[in-house]
Amino acid sequence: MARDDNDGGGFTGKRNKSYRELDAQRGKSKYHSRQDDPAQQKLERSASYQKYKTAADALFTGGELPEGLAKTFDPEGKRKAQKDALRKVQESETRADWVKGVVDYLEKYPDMPEDAYFLDSLLDHPRERIVDKALAKLEALHEAGTLQKKLPKSLDQRLKSIELTGLDPDMQGRAKALREKLRT
Predict the structure, then answer these.
(1) Alpha carbon distances (Å) from 154 to 18, 58, 120, 158
(2) What whole-number distance in Å separates Cα of residue 6 and Cα of residue 3?
(3) Whole-angstrom Cα distance, residue 89 to residue 104?
(4) What is the DSSP string of 55-94?
(5) Rounded distance, CA 76 to CA 63, Å?
(6) Local structure of residue 154 (DSSP, 8 states)
(7) What is the dihedral of CA 30, 33, 39, 45, to 10 degrees?
(8) pLDDT tens for each residue of 51-97
């Protein structure tokens, strides 16, 4: 099919731009990033943007809340104290320190945290009462649908261990049921 040019169809010497080049001119290309944009770079280097970014990261990664939000949501500082206590338990150097730290933590904060990795580690605790509470919390997280997002790799083996070596038949059955639910 013949090309319809304004100048009569001859060779003009002008090169047609590709769609990629046209998109790059408009700033919409998948090959053109926001990092190439000087205005975006200037914004990201600003002190206020950095402060906002660190506060947002802390909020969503479980870190320390920004000052304004901390006053609103946690005026007494209980959240920070609980996170510090949990971190101290997780950083225990010996198993005996860990066992004692878990008992102390649960006496001070009786509600189990929603941290699947911590709950997974509690399934290996020598006290059956603590293992039972951790298993109940894991079951509740599974029913709520939040356990599938952050599933520890060792959870299957720990549940199997409870299933095979647990002294309480009820707990063995619950561990087996949860293990089967997680596999589907």
Answers:
(1) 52, 27, 7, 6
(2) 10
(3) 9
(4) HHHHHHHT-PPPHHHHHHH-TT-HHHHHHHHHHHHHT-SS
(5) 17
(6) T
(7) 150
(8) 878 777 766 666 666 666 667 766 666 777 777 788 888 888 888 88
